[in-house]
Amino acid sequence: MQTRQLPERDPAGGPDPGTTLTKAVMRAAGFLGISQAGVASVLGISTASVSRMASGGYVLDAHRKEWEFGVLFVRLFRSLDAILGHSDQARLWLANENLALGGKPGELIRTTEGLVRVVHYLDATRGRV
Q1: pLDDT tens digits, one per residue of 93-112
Q2: DSSP states of 97-126 as a string?
Q3: Residue 90 CB contacts under 8 Å (≥ 6 apart), including other chains
Q4: For the chain, what are the domain ranges?
Q5: Alpha carbon of 81 to those of 47, 51, 89, 103, 126: distances in Å?
Q6: pTM summary value
Q7: Torsion angle, alpha carbons of 31, 69, 38, 15, to 10
């Protein structure tokens, strides 16, 4: 797997989108208490790549599926934050059984179908708040 160093800015002068998304994914995982192995499972990349993401040696590639999964993961975090706030409630929600989803959201997000289902569920819930 090819490693790409974190550029500080894109050619247009703004922050590099890859760097921004990579940092957002790692911060969201930290807030939600999701391990590097869990992040790797969600993004469909190796644990070693996530370790390099955490240390600044790898950024998500906009031309690969990892990018789309990263965007969905950050969307999941933002929805949980809007609904439950910055508290342990989001971690508890992920860890406990959800009858509407048919499982524990923290386990469901490790598959593509589960991640999409959880994000849609949160979008629908967020729309009612």
Answers
A1: 999 999 999 999 999 999 99
A2: -BTTTTB-HHHHTTSHHHHHHHHHHHHHHH
A3: 31, 32, 77, 80, 81, 84
A4: 17-128
A5: 26, 25, 9, 20, 10
A6: 0.87
A7: -50
